[in-house]
Structure formats: C-alpha cells, structure tokens
Design brief:
This protein is α+β, with helices and mostly antiparallel strands. It is about 35% helix and about 15% strand. The longest helix is centred in the middle third of the chain and has 23 residues. The protein is elongated, with a radius of gyration of 36 Å. The two termini are about 55 Å apart. GO terms for molecular function: RNA binding.
C-alpha cells in the first residue's frame, strides 16, 4: 500500500469521524465543528504543568505504555485485505438447504433431534467489523478482530428462541460457513471452532492470521485479494462506515487506489512491533460471530423474569441429584409446552445469551458514535484494559471482557464524570473509583441512560418497557444495564469475581493516590502482571462425583439456564465461603475452561469438553463422572491460624441448630474464659501445622456436604518437606528418618526461655565496669527466619552433666547472637580502633564474671563472648551508646582513605559490606525491621525460611546475604511492589519472592524496603538520585541488587559487593525457572492418568504413585538445574567434615547427576573411594587435549601419596560414637566448636586464590558440594602473575618487546590440584563437566 497516504489522510479521516457525529458533551463546540487539536493540547499542557514532577513522570510512563499497547492500524494492510477477502467469500456463498446431521452431536446435546432440525442457508444480511478493532481500542498483545455475520431473519422462525432452537440453527449456519471457507483457499486452513466466552452453546469461527513479520502471509493475501477491491463490501445498501468508523480499507486514505493497481500489488513489508519488557506483540486473530438483528425476536420475551427453556421447572436441591431431561421439540411449539409456561422458572442467563446476539450491531453503532464525540476516551479504554489484564481480570468466564469495560468508560463519560481534557491516567482513576465504589459504583449496580436512536429497532419491534433495575438485581449477582434497558452486560459475572475487582481497584487507587514513589506505584499498577498462583493464598482442587451424567456432558446446558458445570462451581464456592467464614477475605472459583482449537467438524461430535477432563470417567463406571473445581482464597494471615471457630450462643436455638447442621459432629458446646457458652468448632493441630487449618476446614466441609467420593487436593503443605531435617550428626539423606516437624518449634521455645533467663542473669551481674541494661537476640533464629532452628545440645550447659553419652553428638554448634546493651559512659575513647579494643576488654571481664557467677562455660574473643547454657551457644555482642557515632566515624575514615580523582561526595563511595554487616548496630536495625514485618504478618517468617533454602539449593548462598533475602521477601509482601494484598500463606510469600526477584528491573530502578513507611519523600528522592548518579559514574561500582531501607539509603549494608551482575542474572533465571515449575502445579495440579482401575488395590497403588510423583515435582523446584551450563566443575566434599550435612535435600544433591546429564564428558580426580586426600596429579585426559597447541606437560609423578595430615582426618559432623562413650562430658566440652562451618571458609579460600578464573557456588545450609563456573576470559592468553605462576601454562615462548612478560593460559590440571591442596581433608573428589 502506498505510504504517501499515511500521514495527511489519516488525520483527515479522524477529522471526518469527529465532525460527522455528535458534539462534545460540554456544549462548547457545535455539532458540525471540529474541536481544534491545539486547544485541547494546550489545556492538557496547562493541567500537567500545574502537577508536580512526580505527575509528569507518571504521564511519561503512561504514554510509553500506550505506545506499546496501541495497534498501528495504518501500518497493517494485510489485515484489511484479509477482512476484505473474508467478507467477499462469505457473502458470495450460495443459498442451500442444511440438515442437522452436519452438527448432529451439538444438536443432540441441546436436547433436539438432528433429523428434525434443518436450516435454509442464505448469505448474511451484513458482514460488519465490530468490537475493539473497529473502535481502535485493541490492546496488545492479544489482537482480535471481531467480524459479525448477521443471519437473515427468514432463516429463523418466530419462536426459535425457545428451548435452544436458535442455538442449533446458529451452529448450523456457522458450520456451513466454516466448511465453505475451508474448501476455498489454504488461507483458511487455520479455521477452528471455539466457544464464545467459554459458553459451549455459542460457537464461533476463529481464524489465526500469522504475524505481520512473516512475508509468506503478506504474499498469500496480496495474491488472493483483487487489487481493485480494497473496501469492505456491504449488502445493506450502504457502506458499513455509515454506522461504524471507517477502519477497514481506510476509505479516505485509499482514495484513488483503483488507479494504482501496480502500487497495490507491490509487496510492502509491515513495520515489525518492538517487544516490550511487560507487553509482547502477537499475531492477529479473526473471530467470525453469527449475530441476528434486533427485530428477529420479541425482546420482551427475553427479559430476566421470563422463561425460554420450558423444561426448567425446578432446581436441583443438591449436587449429583437427577435433573429433568429436555423434551425433543420440533420447529413449532407444542400445546403442552404452552400449558407449562405458567409453571416454569425464569432463565435469565439463557435469555441474556440470545439478547447479546441481537444487540451486537446496535452496541457497535452506539460505541462508535460515543468515541467519535470523545476521541481521547480510547486511550483511557486502552489503559483500563491493560490494568484489567495485568490483574487477571480480563477474559475469564465469570469476569470482565473488553466490551463491558468499553461500555463502562462510555457510561462514565456520558454521565459527565470524564472530560475531554483529562489525561488517560485520570480517566483510569475515574474508572477504578466506579469499580470500587460500593455506594454508587458497579457493586451497587449501574444503569446506562437510554439511547433512543440506537434502540429504535428494538422499540419498533416491541412496545413494552424495559424491566426495572430491581428485576435485574433479583436475577443477577452483578448488574450493569446497557442503553437499551434490556441487557445486563455483566450477567455472567459472579459475586466473587466482583469482590476481586473491587479489591484490585481499591488497592490500585490507594497506591496511585498515596504513594510517594510514583515510579514504583505505576509499575505495580500497570506493569506488574499477576497470576492466580501469586494472587491467592490457598488453592484447592475439589473433585465432585456426579451421578447420571455421561462423560463430556458437564458442559451440557440440559440444566436449562446455564451449563451444569457452572452450577457445581457456584455451589462449591458457596460451601467454601461458609466453611472459612471470616478467615477468608475472598473466595474465588477458577472457572474451568473449555478445550479450544477444535476442528471445523467438531460440532458433529458434540459440545466442547473441559481441559484436563477429556478422559472422562475416573471411576471406571459409565454412570459416574468426576468434575474438578478449582477454588482459591485470600485469607487474613492472623485469623487463618485460629484454632477455634466460635458459633452462636447456646440460647439462640435457631442459629445453633443451623450451625450444628453444617458442622455436624465437629460442633460442640463450649464455655469460654469470658463466661459465655457457645457452639464452637476446634481444630486441634500441632504448631507447625497451623498453616494447614484452612485445608482441614475445606476437606471436612467437602466430605460432609458434597456427594460421597469427593476429594480435596491441597498444596499449602508441599513445601513443609523443605524445612524438615534429620537428627544432628546423621549421614546422607535416607540413612535415618527425619525429625518430628515440631522439634524445631520446641527448640525455638526452649531458646526463647534461655534468652530470657540469660537476660535476667546478665542484668544482675555485679562487679562489671559497665552495667548491662538490656539483652536483645538478633540472630535469624530469634526472628524465626533461619531455614533450620538450632537444636539443644546435651554438652552445652548442663543437660548431660554426668554419666555416659550415647548416640552421635554434633561437634559444631550454631551460635545464637545476642546484643548486650551497656550503660552509657563518657569515658569511651574517640578513636574507632581504641574503641573496639576497649569493648573487647569489657567482654573479657564480663565472660569471667558469668563463668564464676553462674557456672556457664564461656569463651571470650575480640569481637564477642560465647556462653554455653541450657543446650545453646549464645554469642554476646556488646553495644553502647557510642556505637552509632563510632560507626559514622569509621565510615568517614574508610571513605576518605579511597583516593580518587572524582567530584562526587564521599557518601557515594561504598563501604565494604563485610565490615558494615558485622557491625552489631547495623544488625540490630535489620533485626527490628524484619521482626516488625513478620510480627504483623505471620506468613512471612516461613516464607523467608523457604526462600533461603531455595537460594541454597541453587548453590548461591555465598552470592547473596541472608539479610538481603529477608528484605526481598518483605518487599515482595508490600503492596507497593505488587499492588496485591499481603500474602496470607507461606507458599504465596515464597512465590511473590520469586516473582519479584525474576521480574523487577534491577538495572533501572532501585528497590526500597519500607514496611513501616518511615522514609520521607525527600529521602526517597535522594535514593533515586544516588541510584542515577551511580549508574552514570563508570568508575564507581554500583550494587547489582540496589536494596535500600530507612537506615541504608545507599545499599551499603548487605548488597554492596554481592550479588555481582552475573550472580544476579543467575538468580533471576533460576527464579523464573522455579516459577514456571510451580505455577501449573498450584493452579491446575499435576496431570495424572485417568485410566479406570477395577480393584481397590489398583486404585490405592495408583494414588500412591501419583502422590509420590507430585511430591517429586514440587521438590524439583529445589534442585540445581541438570543442564550442562549449570556448573563446569563439581567439588565433592567429605560428609564427615560437614556439620550441616544432615540438612541436605535429596533432590539438591549434585552428585546424583550422571555423565549424560552433565554433558557427556567428565573426568574424576579420585576413584571415589572414601579417602581423606586426593592425588596431586592425574593422568592425561580428554580434557587436557584441548591445550595441545603448546604441550609443556611433563610426566606425572606416580609415587605413592604421603599419609594425610591429622587435620585431614578430623570429624566435624559429629563425635565418633566410641569416643563419646569412652569420654565424659567434661572432656568433650572443650572439643566443641561454636560457629565453625568449613564450607564458607573453603569457598573464601578458593575465591582468594582463583577469583580471577572462576566463580564458586555453594549451599551453606546442608550442601555437600561446591560448584565452579569458569569465567568467560578464564582460559584466554594473559600475562602470568607471581601468585599463580605455578598454575600457568605458556602458550608462546616469544617475549613482548614492551612488557617482557610471558603470555600464558591456566593449566587446568594444576589448578584443580591446587584446589585439592587447599581443601585437603574436605574435598574428596572432583568432577569436570565438558
């Protein structure tokens, strides 16, 4: 298509659209006057100039989103040509007689005899483009072009709207079109029958148009479409542009195209769309929708209180009860049917379906007229659609569609709540207010103003008045009446779907209106995409057996008003709501979707079936079928853990009877502490299982009120296995059974009691230079965020004072760090180094007083004092009022020591994180922040524990601090990051953490963690300025994970050096992989075999296999990827040298990878036998042959290795049993090691030597391996260094004239041998992956 028409003609087309329609509502412009663009933009610029800088940022962000969302209609000639050809092919169909056998299965499922159903096919009266494409409000990436094909009135008889007769003939009409198109051209080979809004009784024809970047599609269309026909033909005597915008063919832009045949035939490459970080483009989809004219049926017969399905005379009282079967009716209404009309029940859902088909074209004309008079409204519609799609509120069976949202925006504009000078963001706020306002918004019910012009066809055919809004409220959960007064636009929307919309709208409004970080607020509102796995806290898959229902009949409309499946879902949702009561803030059923993408002849087989249920019979019986209903709930994090549900008082006999009838034997009469006697339901469970109480409630309610055989599958407890551990000192996984899950909670309570006891004793110490004022634990165990709680040790403080010891006793103890606050003094030295030495002297004095006064074993060091008492090792960190001043002075001294020729202030220079992170004051600040967040939301602490364990299983514990993981989980729970309510379960908190880690743009935006809203707007702006300054400064190293708090505005405490950009990229990639694994497991569950099993033993065996498979799938998320790119070298560690080997997960063991999984080629530096040292040399292998160009390797020394050093035989995991039995406690206590972990020490030693060659990865919470990933430039020729000269292999003997240095590459054999020497006694084997 010639490009010379693009600019000027598009503008003239837009002018024509506006001038031909009504004036702007404010009356400032006449009906035939075009509102000049400069005047509107000048008003907008004036309004925006009065806003703050934050508002300007929001406007820029909105424009960028609209640019990525809007479709360039003028640059899509292939779509227009395709629609033109499709219109011509459909209108050129011949008249013919169609029999019911062409859709026999579909018609039979509707309760009719295919032999008695026929249709005299005639070409459609109109073929019109409707919907978003015609209105220019398509929101990418899902681009759908709706084409309405109007069925001629004489193809239907007067009362065809009764008993699904219209639906059968509608399906025949569509089937005829599909067969005709399939026989015409390969261009229609992608034709598929799909369901309109997942309604099985309303099939549509879907044709997928390939992406415009594919040349083949453009060539096919150009060759198929005649060059002289570029406009959509119309059979109604006038062009469709009279009632709709001229979108197809672009009438004014294509003026004179007939005289330019050569130009039209030229193949023009369309402009490819640019992918966005959050919105990706896709190809076009054309959807052919059969419709009827408004005068086809009497509209008053389709009002909500009327019945159109004569067999609907009673409602089923319970699930699985027998239903009345439809009578097979011919083309006329029988006498008995007329007599039964007075006894039938209303069918509002059925009537709405027919009305929707009748009002498609009037709605299209109404919206076209409205948008012509309000041109800026289209941007507001695009923004609202984007918001709804990101919140997963668009496209659901029982939720919004694009048409309803467009009608809502037009309704608000007609009411005067929007102005043409409003920005799109302001329009979005008005729409969100209407969605969330429970007084006058959609929750209360809306009714559009009558439009007589577009309702003239209905008024001419029916003189009755539309029903009142109260009639609609009686029959529908949500009411939004259109401009005709007959159709409820939200008829299929449920109360739970409305509650989800209201919650999302309120949350978004709150963020946009009150947030001080506008950029983060905008990203959370419009750029962050939610999924059910992260939106809801609990997910249940409830299987309901249904008797007298054939397989595949779940989508049948034989219940009359709507498919039977929707009734089952509604009843299950109501049951779960009543069972959870106030524990749940929202209960939502994920409506089952129908299988899409079925062939053109699928109507002959019957109605579409559900995804995942096509196997049909799960019980091996032809009379019983199982329907799966997915229920999700958001809960109050505190109320969800409640142990008792209190019912009505005993004297309220009616309410008590209803309570007992629902809960059955679970209900009991109880007297409470306040003296009242009430009905109650108590859920006795262990403390570690309290998060499963909602699961137990739903399981009990389903077993009591659903048909026998119903089952409930839960997923909230699948991650509990990650946090279980084996007895201390045990060997590899599976050698000993796991501990009771409640052991950790019991140990935590013992530790709390010991801390209280220690605090009282320290405050009572006499004779110290400075008195102890307070004691505060600051370790991860104290705030319940450690992956595994420290268990009491029999040698640490009197539990095994005397007598023989038995069993494997751990040798290493985890310290519980405690901050000891000393009284104020003015005699502290001002020098930071002298200050630390003085504190060390005070600690030595305090250790002596504790040991002599209370008899505890103490060990004093320069930094802390270790105390063994009551089974735990407490590490005392002294703190005084001078610590904060000394910290500031120490930072200033360190910053001034950095000599650089830059102009930035010293505050922009990072302080080494190791020094700041070890400062007791910094750790106290962090402990207070995390403890406050976990205290408000009990689900955060277990989510943090799972997140830390996940980081460890990915062998990245040394690349990100535990405190940074805690801050990320707290940030993910904040509404400013996700615009979602706080998580109410451990699983949801962990999923939010993964989503934040994998999707946040860390390179362009900092992450601010402020759960208590302590940061001022000035401080937030300072954080942004610091972040931007570090991005610009090429000489300054910026933290890859810029994580700020109220006490750390420059991300110096926990992420100054780690993670590196490469490590952060690995974290994001593995978080994304884990999300992809867990999302389907949460939302749909694993796909099990649906084959029938005859015996009970077979069913039991299959259930056990399915459960084990599901557990394996969940645990695979905590496994290192087995692809060849994960690690290059694996260092195998000696288990007896690892204090935390008992915490290794079975799926996270890298040693289980085979050579095939590791890439096919690997070598080992040891024979794998349990030795204590490895050889320092190895035979020439296939891996060495890669360095043959300069072969300077000498013969390998094959002499026997000397006996290993004593330190290489040391047992760190546990004392040998014979040693423990032969010695007493007094001899073993000095051998205890507090806070000693060889794995971090080994990683630091390897990093210090070989950091220039590789990145080292480890799991600090039970890992038995260390991974090595070579750096990209590791084996490139470089100049040799003195410290690594013995591991270098010269690749050339010529000396550089300038540097006089030898160019070398690392000798892999010698590098690995050096690693063995460094890890002597710990490393027992090395695996090299090719």
């Amino acid at each position: 298509m010639p490009t010379e028409f693009d600019d000027d003609d598009v503008e003239s087309e837009e002018e024509t659209r506006i001038s031909d329609e009504e004036a702007i509502p404010d009356g400032s412009v006449g009906t035939n006057t075009f509102l000049p663009k400069p005047s509107v933009s000048s008003v907008q610029d004036f309004l925006r100039s009065s806003d703050t800088s934050e508002s300007s940022v929001l406007q820029m962000e909105v424009r960028e989103v609209l640019r990525e969302t809007r479709v360039e209609y003028g640059n899509e000639p292939g779509v227009d040509r395709f629609i033109s050809k499709l219109t011509k092919d459909i209108q050129g169909m011949p008249e013919q007689q169609v029999h019911g056998k062409d859709a026999a299965g579909f018609i039979s499922a509707l309760g009719q005899d295919p032999e008695e159903v026929s249709l005299k096919f005639k070409p459609p009266s109109k073929v019109t483009v409707i919907g978003s494409y015609a209105l220019h409000t398509v929101a990418r990436p899902e681009v759908v072009v709706d084409v309405a094909v109007e069925i001629p009135e004489d193809c239907l008889f007067k009362k065809a709207h009764l008993n699904y007769r219209y639906h059968s003939r509608r399906a025949l009409y569509l089937s005829t079109i599909a067969k005709h198109l399939g026989s015409l051209s390969p261009l229609y080979s992608s034709c598929q029958i799909t369901s309109m809004q997942d309604d099985p009784t309303r099939p549509t024809l879907t044709i997928h148009l390939p992406s415009m970047s594919e040349k083949s599609s453009n060539i096919d269309i150009a060759n198929e479409v005649p060059s002289t026909s570029n406009e959509v033909p119309s059979t109604s005597g006038r062009n469709t542009s009279d009632s709709l915008p001229s979108t197809l063919g672009h009438k004014k832009r294509l003026k004179g195209v007939n005289n330019r045949k050569k130009d039209v035939e030229t193949k023009v490459e369309p402009k490819p769309y640019k992918p966005s970080d959050y919105l990706s483009p896709s190809g076009f989809t054309v959807k052919v929708i059969p419709v009827i004219s408004p005068s086809t049926f009497v509209v008053s017969k389709l009002s909500p209180e009327h019945n159109s399905v004569r067999w609907v005379t009673q409602l089923s009282s319970s699930l699985g009860s027998s239903k009345q079967k439809p009578k097979k009716n011919g083309p006329t209404v029988g006498v008995e049917e007329e007599k039964e009309e007075s006894n039938v029940l209303p069918t509002p859902q059925y009537n709405t379906k027919v009305l929707q088909d009748m009002l498609y074209l009037p709605h299209a004309a109404y919206l076209s007229s409205a948008l012509s008079s309000f041109p800026n409204l289209s941007d507001g519609i695009l923004l609202l659609k984007t918001w709804a799609r990101q919140r997963a509120l668009l496209g659901k069976v029982d939720a919004f569609d694009g048409h309803t949202l467009t009608m809502l925006m037009v309704h608000l504009a007609k009411q005067g709540k929007m102005s043409p000078v409003m920005s799109p963001l302001q329009m979005l706020r008005v729409a969100l207010h209407a969605l969330s306002d429970t007084v006058s918004g959609l929750p209360k019910g809306l009714g559009m103003a009558r439009d007589e012009h577009n309702s003239s066809a209905i008024s001419a055919a029916c003189s009755a008045h539309p029903p009142s809004v109260s009639v609609f409220r009686h029959h529908f959960d949500v009411v939004f009446v259109d401009f005709t007064g007959w159709l409820n636009l939200t008829a299929g929307m449920t109360k739970s779907a409305l509650a989800q919309v209201v919650s999302a709208a309120k949350q978004t409004l709150q963020i946009l209106q009150s947030s001080v970080d506008v950029e983060a607020a905008f990203a959370a509102s419009l750029l962050f995409r939610s999924s059910p796995a992260t939106m809801f806290d609990y997910h249940w898959r409830i299987r309901v057996p249904v008797a007298d229902l054939e397989p595949g009949e779940h989508s049948s409309p034989k219940c009359g008003n709507r498919p039977y499946l929707r009734d089952v879902e509604s009843k299950v949702e109501d049951l779960v709501k009543r069972a959870l009561s106030d524990r749940a803030t929202l209960v939502r059923v994920m409506a089952a979707k129908l299988l899409s993408g079925q062939g053109r002849s699928c109507l002959e087989a019957g109605l579409p079936v559900l995804e995942g249920e096509e196997g049909g019979n799960l019980h091996g019986s032809s009379s019983v079928h199982t329907l799966t209903v997915t229920v999700m709930a958001n809960v109050d994090a505190t109320l969800a853990l409640r142990l008792a549900d209190v019912g009505p008082a005993a004297d309220d006999t009616k309410a008590s009877a209803a309570f007992r009838a629902f809960w059955g034997a679970k209900s009991e009469l109880r007297r409470f502490q306040d003296g009242k006697i009430s009905e109650a339901v108590v859920w006795d469970c262990a403390p570690v299982d309290r998060h499963k109480i909602p699961d137990r409630i739903v399981q009990y309610a389903a077993g009591a009120h659903l048909p026998p055989g119903s089952s409930v599958a839960c997923c909230s407890g699948h991650l509990d296995r990650v946090l279980t551990q084996r007895p201390p000192g045990s060997g590899s996984y599976g050698s000993e059974p796991c501990l009771d899950p409640n052991t950790g909670i019991s140990a935590f309570r013992m530790m709390e009691a010991a801390v209280d006891k220690l605090g009282k004793q320290l405050r009572s110490v006499e004779g110290a230079a400075l008195k102890v004022l307070g004691v505060q634990p600051i370790s991860t165990a104290a705030r319940q965020t450690c992956p595994y709680f420290p268990l009491p040790h029999p040698l640490a403080g009197g539990a095994a004072a005397a007598g023989a010891l038995s069993g494997r006793l751990p040798r290493c103890l985890e310290p519980v760090e405690v901050l000891v606050q000393l009284e104020a003094s003015g005699r502290w030295p001002d020098d930071p180094q002298a200050f630390s030495k003085t504190k060390a002297a005070l600690g030595l004095q305090l250790a002596g007083l504790i040991e002599t006064g209370f008899g505890y074993k103490t060990v004093a060091s320069e930094d802390s004092v270790d105390v063994l008492m009551d089974g735990f090792a407490f590490r005392l960190l002294l703190y005084s009022t001078r610590d904060e001043a000394m910290l500031v002075k120490e930072q200033a001294l360190m910053a001034s020591s950095i000599t650089r020729n830059v102009w930035e202030a010293p505050s922009l220079h990072p302080i080494p994180s190791m020094q700041l992170s070890n400062n007791p004051l910094v750790r106290s600040w962090h402990h207070g922040l995390v403890s406050s967040a976990t205290g408000v939301n009990p689900s955060l602490a277990p989510a943090i524990r799972v997140a830390k364990r996940w980081v460890g299983t990915q062998m990245l514990s040394n690349h990100i601090a535990e405190e940074a993981v805690e801050l990320l989980v707290v940030a993910a729970a904040a509404s400013l990051s996700t615009s979602l309510p706080p998580p109410g379960s451990m699983l949801t908190g962990f999923m939010r953490f993964l989503e934040l880690l994998s999707h946040h743009p860390w390179s362009t935006r900092p992450m601010v963690v402020d759960p208590e809203h302590q940061l001022s707007p000035q401080e937030r702006r300072q954080i942004s300025k610091t972040f931007d300054a570090l991005r610009v400064d090429k000489h300054q190293k910026m933290p890859a994970l810029f994580l700020c708090t109220s006490k750390d505005l420059e991300s110096k405490h926990w992420t100054a050096t780690n993670p590196t950009p490469d490590a952060l990229q690995q974290l994001q990639a593995r978080a994304f992989r884990t999300l992809r694994l867990l999302r389907p497991l949460i939302e749909t569950g694993p796909h099990h075999s649906a084959a029938p099993h005859t015996t009970i033993a077979q069913q039991k065996r299959v259930r056990e296999e399915d459960d084990e498979e599901e557990r394996s799938l969940w645990m695979s998320a905590f496994c290192l990827p087995s692809d060849s790119g994960a690690m290059d070298v694996i260092l195998h560690l000696r288990v007896d040298s690892l204090p935390q080997a008992c915490r290794a997960l079975p799926v996270a063991r890298v040693g289980s990878l085979t050579s095939d999984q590791m890439g096919g080629a690997f070598i080992r530096l040891n024979d794998g036998k349990p030795g204590f040292n490895a050889p320092k040399s190895m035979k020439r292998s296939r891996l060495e042959s890669a360095y043959q160009p300069v072969d300077l390797l000498t013969d390998i020394d094959r002499s026997p290795n000397p006996p290993p050093d004593k330190r290489a035989r040391v047992f760190l995991r546990a004392f040998p049993e014979k040693l423990a039995e032969g010695r007493g406690p007094n001899q073993l206590v000095p051998e205890l090691l507090v806070g000693f972990d060889p794995v971090p020490m080994l990683v630091e030693a390897l990093k210090e030597r070989f950091d220039h060659l590789a990145a080292f990865c480890a799991d600090y919470h039970g890992g038995t391996h260390v991974g090595i990933k070579w750096k990209p430039a590791a084996f490139l020729p470089s100049f040799v260094q003195a410290t690594t000269a013995h591991t270098a292999l010269p690749c050339t003997l010529s000396l550089s004239a300038e540097s006089k240095k030898i160019s070398c590459v690392p000798n892999l054999v010698q590098v690995l041998s050096d690693m063995l020497e460094i890890g002597e006694g710990i490393i027992i084997d090395i695996t090299c992956v090719a």
